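Quick start: load a record and inspect it. Here is tRNA-specific adenosine deaminase 2 isoform X1:
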Amino acid sequence: MASVNGKDSSATLAFMELAIQQAKLAMESLEVPVGCVIVEDGKVVASGRNRTTETRNATRHAEMEAIDVLLEQLQKLGLSEAEVAEKFSGFDFYVTCEPCIMCAMALSILGIREVYYGCANDKFGGCGSILSIHSSGSEHLSSSKASPTSSAILVKLPHLNYFTELGCHVICSFIYVHSLNCGLVFYLLITLDPFTNQLSMVLIQDNKK
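Running the structure step on this input writes:
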């Protein structure tokens, strides 16, 4: 797991502050105030904010918005699908709130290297609060600043081609469709085992032909 001390800690807080700026823009637009930035080699390459109300689309979370911005940039470079996948392994995500299960799974499938978030999501969190999409645990980032980022959390997500875990009753579902050349379709079902009361997921990834 990457170090989050000293200089790295200062950089992390700086990027988180930029994510907070995106969250403020969301709040000004009467959206749930969540924002994020994507970083490569110490530089912000994309950003996004929650736009679910504006678009009347429940999947338009800040993470999905930033991913779309980034994919559009990569498409303009004429990269192949393999090259795009390789690029994603070098990106870090900074988001003001723990990604929901849908977003955490999307980040995992895309191969995002690391995810930093500022507060837990105790209703829909996919990085440990409700389900743990990541494989290597969380690491707290301490800071003396009195700031929403003073207890940021680093989560490493594995690169998964697909993830399947069977359950008995579907209680929630999400569909995320990307229409670019490297378009991805994610079908994520949240299920409940009536015997153990365990939450499970069924995720299907389709590539557009």
